[in-house]
Queue: 2 jobs
Job 1
Amino acid sequence: MALITLRQLLDHAAEHGYGVPAFNINNMEQGLAIMEAAEGCDAPVILQASRGARKYAGDIMLRHMVQALAEMFPGNHIVMHQDHGNNDATCLSAIRHGFTSVMMDGSLKADGKTPASYDYNVAITAAVSQMAHAVGASVEGELGVLGSLQSRALHTGQPAEDSGSYFLLDMIAVLDWTRRNCAAFGCDPDNLTLAGQSAGAVAVLGLLRSPLAKGSFARAISFSGIPFSASAQTGQQRTAKLLGELLRQRADDAPSVDDWLTAQPPQAQRDFLLNRSTTELLQASGIGLPPAFVADGHVLMALDEDEADEPAPQVVSEVPLLIGRTDDEMSTLAGFKNVGASAGARWPLVNGEPRDATIHQTLGLVQRWQRRVRIGLGDWLVGRKLRQFERAYAAQLPAVYVYRFAWDDYPEPWRSDFGTLHGLDLPFVFGNFIDDQKSYMRFAWTPQNEAARQRLHEQITSSLRHFVHTGQPSPAASDSWPPWGQHEYVRTWDQ
């Protein structure tokens, strides 16, 4: 068998009712491991390369490597796919080097950072499609996005679809696929652990509450997540507000939402919402669509409308849960401790060069005490909300283990500005302390704290491994980590 296009593979998958995984590769070892697994379950596979992988390995190396894999595994169809092309030149280069499929991500401009208009996205995706189809390659586009919307404009009569929790349904579909296929990759389908951080943690906590996800996983880990959800009524109100803003973006004299819904046929309503670009939705929502699920009673257990402000989440999947947060979550989520500028003005300064205190001086726009009050209040509210949910989960689950992550062993002025900021725990989980990336975390890693970082990394991963295998995070009998429960025990991960 030979290399095929993505369109050929997806058409066959749709006809026969199966899903196809896509794996990013940049070296021989990854390619061999993926193909051995694919051969083991007699499955076609998508091998894709990002722009970073192409820069690292080179198009010629990637082309010959994939061709070699196709020869070594003749019983498997392979798609050679360009992942997230940033412009037409990138996609054309991939096609010229033998890629059978490309993705044109026109939701962002060529720099890969600036949000693009829907018209730009459509135009450049069409241009790439014309070039690709001339030589028989297929094109994947990213023309619109919907996450959690509840509107009668989108109703189909199917309870799941009408829930509005589209991204939760996507995750449930992934879980289902994983359970059905993971044995081919050496995994136990009855011993899966869900883990997520920030918005990913919100998703994990949402899946705990979904009847459609029950039985799909055995344990759950939430890093810095709160189980946001909206009642059906709130979801409808939020979507109506978003729809009104989308209409106003199109015309100054836009009709009211009710008038527009009355005037437009159902298909026109659906087409309008489904064809909105990422940029349009983010601009219309103001600060971005919140990671909140609609508690519709089908995809997510319904909330008591009278208790929607302080709901106790009704858990469906009764599995052990490890949950916690950093000490200073709000130091970046609400802006830096001495910064009053908007996020848009602040971000380039923090993530750019140089790597020294001049950035700190540039950011000193308001008095530090003002910032501390704002952040302190935010952290108090986050902590209060999280303790509420920890208590609710502990009453419903077999075991809930709670941690706090506290690490600020890095130089001033960053130590005072950031503290144990949101997301700082992830490098300690994965051991990837990268000091040259354009991120505020680059200030945290120094030769002086390398040994302490490594010790904390080993401590955390030891607990996580033990939890994944046993449902209990204490790796040794002498290191007791009791469930939160009645004693409200909280383990501190620190230096």
Note: The chain has a mean pLDDT of 79.
Job 2
Amino acid sequence: MLEALLLLPLIGSGLVFAFRNSNSKYLAVGIAFVQMFLTFYMLSQFNSTPTVDSSLQFEINQPWSTFIKSTIHFGVDGMSMLLLLLTNILVPLIILSSFNENKGYSNNFYALILLMQFGLVGVFTALDGLLFYAFWEITLIPIWFIAGLWGDNEKRIKTTTKFFVYTFVGSLFMFIGLIYVYNNAASFELTDLYNASLNGTQQFFVFWLIFLAFAVKLPIFPLHNWQADTYTYSPTQGTMLLSGIMLKMAIYGVLRYLLPIAPEALLGTSGQVVMILSIIGVVYGALIAIVNTDIKRIIAYSSLSHVGLMVAGIFASAIITAKGGFSIEGAQGALVQTFAHGINIVGLFYCADILIKRFKTRDIREMGGYAKVAPKFATLFMIILLGSMAVPLTNGFIGEFILLKSIFDYDKVVAVFAGLTVILCAVYLLRLYGKAMFGAGDDKVLATLKDISAVEFTVLATLAVFVIMLGVYPSCIIEMVNSSLKFIYSSIKG
């Protein structure tokens, strides 16, 4: 089963590359939906109890190189399963969202999305450090081409260059860090990296080398300068991939490849510095979103704010655990929010794209009144918006609640600043919605507009279902990841 999940998007990418036809999008979306159904079938058979230090239910472990002590080792535990679900649910919806594009994307565009999916599946299932790094780099190639070839004509060179430099340099530091750990471990095997013989100084060094790559990808303040421009000027589908799935690689990496390898660094200033930077990102992102009028930049800074909260929750529980306690609440909340954020941010960017196409502008001050002619869109947009604001019974609520509780357990003053994300998020998102949907619009423009198409409705309605379903039943995610997180945080405690 795992072999199929790895190979299908890779083979599919090759087929779509070769299929030079205007109907290539149908082949691509068909392959992506098969991948989604395979993932749901795996979920139906899945036992989340085994952890990466034991025999996993779905696992590939083949020798590769005895010289560099690396193996072809993939496996699925509860945390991997969650990220596989997110990836393989969103990719077909992202492809489907392009069907109404006027640009007429070529087969190469869809092949690159499937290649991206291949890289993401590899990242979320790799249990060998060298393999993890290889797939991490693989994901950079297709998104760079997608943003560079189909992004904004005037800005794409500048923005893609900035994005590539930031992410490539960050990845290089991670590679150096993994090599350093490997030199003090038995092999690149994940559990051997956990057991590497590193003293406190060495762990401090490794911590910042590896964290830098994750901090850029998330991003964490002040390494966020690439994000707003890239999200704004990339094609909508590229932005969805970046915000909905790619940044989740870093959340996964922090939990899987950082905290268990360098737990002693948390006892010094490193953990506190990360907490401070995360909280600054929470407040800074929200404040910039409030004063912005570009709809895509508002959503981009909203993402920065929410990601900061996730990282703060993970490190709050990690620091408590490293100091002798034991808490996985922050990581639980972060993973619930990871899934919720992926659904919500893809929905928000798609709604933004629909509004931009209708009104021919990204400025929310030049929109208005669309709810009069588009009640279906107004309803679905509001559901996704409520999820992003963490309203009770939506997917964002329980994750943010657990995150704030974990930060409160760490430090009450820090929790006050972290809690600002809930209030400020409501301010800028309701302002955005009010301007676009109920503002004073041009009657002549509105007379030419229609409600959303069948494709647009299908994508948004599917996302809205997940917003409500996970709001009502969030425990399914918590139960899925519990064993994985207990193992990781037990490794931190030592």
Note: The beta strands are 58-65, 70-76.
